[in-house]
Amino acid sequence: xxxxxxxPSMDCAExxxxxxxxxxxxxxxxxxxxxxxxxxxxxPQYIIHGLKxxxxxxxxxxxxxxxxxxxxxxLPHATLRDTAVYYCIVRVNNAGNNRKLIWGLGTSLAVNP
Amino acid sequence: xxxxxxSPRHKVTETGTPVTLRCHQTENHRYMYWYRQDPGHGLxxxxxxxxxxxxxxGEVSDGYSVSRSKTEDFLLTLESAxxxxxxxxxxxxxxSVRTRIGYTFGSGTRLTVV
Lengths: 113, 114
Fold this sequence. Notes:
By secondary structure, chain A is mainly β.
């Protein structure tokens, strides 16, 4: 089962910030939070990830609460091309060489003109 | 994405026939993964590889086998296709378990079993 909870859908006006929440209340101390997005019919695309500290890159910012039980992905100036399904994923450490990602259903973000 | 290609992009096959999907990478990444994506389920891991000839099962491996004889190629085989295997299949690669850039996914193969 997925270990994250996200709203199924959100809307955002073009040019405004899109704030996508994720709950991961059972996260353990050495698990990272990853964000991906999937534009219709394409493969998922990596956005950002973090462990404890807030992170920023050219695509987005990731804010992780101090207790690490939730996080928010921020797209600072959403465009129509940001319309996609956004997945928040906790990375599970398995024995051996596999770092399996458990995928939920994500948040379908619609950016409106 | 550049560096990872899946073939074919689309395939229609009949129940009971064998099918092989190919994932090819030019990034020399160690880890390769096969996922399937179905409505209401998200992405589910079928099999993965952590090196040449080193593979292991994921959460939905029944009815699938894989092979990796070269670093760049990871093949997914449906020994006898069933309608329940109609899905979109994605291949992914990653450089290491400590990768800082996550996984890179291919564009997907849409398989229909009739």
